[in-house]
Structure formats: structure tokens, C-alpha cells
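Dear U.,

Please find below the material for section 3 of the report. The protein was modelled together with flavin-adenine dinucleotide; I have listed the sequence and SMILES used, followed by the predicted complex structure.
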Amino acid sequence: MTRRDLSVLVAGAGIGGLTTALSLHAAGFEDVRLVEAAAEIRPLGVGLNILPNAVRELTELGLYEALAARAVLTAEFVLYHRSGGQIWREPRGLAAGYRWPGNPVPKKGGEPQPPNPFKEGPAATHLNSLLATLGK
Ligand SMILES: Cc1cc2nc3c(=O)[nH]c(=O)nc-3n(C[C@H](O)[C@H](O)[C@H](O)COP(=O)(O)OP(=O)(O)OC[C@H]3O[C@@H](n4cnc5c(N)ncnc54)[C@H](O)[C@@H]3O)c2cc1C
């Protein structure tokens, strides 16, 4: 039996499920199905703090350009006291010596829709689908 013969079901199309399904597909699993209980995939909240090691994984999956188009790649992290005095300052991402940038947050006015590489093709996303039980 090869990877091509195996079917994989991933439950949940958050960043974890989407990345898992995409990684499995990149590793040679062709029948990867993603079930998501929600009726649609849309951004929620301010954004995700994605560190350099995670940016590396997304880059490996060919998603860097899509990510960079939606993100501000921060160069430093600075904490200020409410009176204005600086408490802490440290470089982040490339400025800190990582080979990948980190800490992207969504750009104001940027593309609202996150990339969903599973809209079509063998690794399909099934929305409105709750994985209720697992059995043999
Ligand atoms: C209020 C709040 C604020 C946050 N702010 C930040 C932030 O500013 N920066 C940051 O980096 N992180 C933030 N986080 C954390 C971040 O949102 C999570 O770490 C991240 O989204 C987790 O991704 P995930 O894919 O593991 O899970 P989720 O994004 O939770 O995705 C899981 C998905 O699985 C689906 N699902 C669950 N069970 C089933 C099932 N049985 N069948 C089908 N589908 C199912 C759910 O509907 C959901 O869409 C915040 C979290 C919360 C709650």
C-alpha cells in the first residue's frame, strides 16, 4: 500500500487543519479530505501571530507570497509603559537572525479572505460537515 492508496480525513479547517491537509498532500497523499463544521471559512479577530518556524512551513508549502500580501512583517517587538517609557525592545524575525520573517499580522485593507488551497481538486474542503463519530 502506498500513500496514493490511503485516504486521509482531517477534521477542522482552521490554520492547523488547513496546514496539515496541505502538508499531507505535499507529502504524496492524494486523497485528503477536510471537513469543517462551519458553513464558511472567513477571518476572525485581528490576526494570527505566526512565528518564523511556522512561516518556514508555510513557505515550504508555497504560501509565502499569499502570506506576505496579507501581512506586516514585524522587525522588532517593543513594550512601553503607559507613561511612555520603554520597558523592553528586541528584534524579531529576519532582524533577529532568523532565515524567515515572523509575526505577520493582517494588513489594514488587505485581502480579507485567507487563501484556501482546498477549494477544488482531490484535497477538497467540505464545509457544513461535522465529524461526529470515528469507527472502523
Ligand atoms: C479570542 C481569541 C483570540 C485569539 N487571538 C490570537 C491572536 O491575536 N494571535 C494568535 O496568534 N492567536 C490567537 N488566538 C489563538 C488562535 O486563534 C489559535 O491558536 C488558532 O486559531 C488555532 O488554530 P487551529 O486550526 O488549531 O484551531 P481552530 O482555528 O479553532 O480551528 C478548528 C476548526 O475545527 C472545526 N471543528 C472542530 N471540531 C470539528 C468536527 N468534529 N468536525 C468538523 N469540524 C470541526 C471548528 O469549527 C474550527 O473551524 C486567539 C484565540 C482566541 C479564542
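For the text of the report, you could mention the following: DSSP finds three helices and seven strands in the chain.

Regards,
Y.
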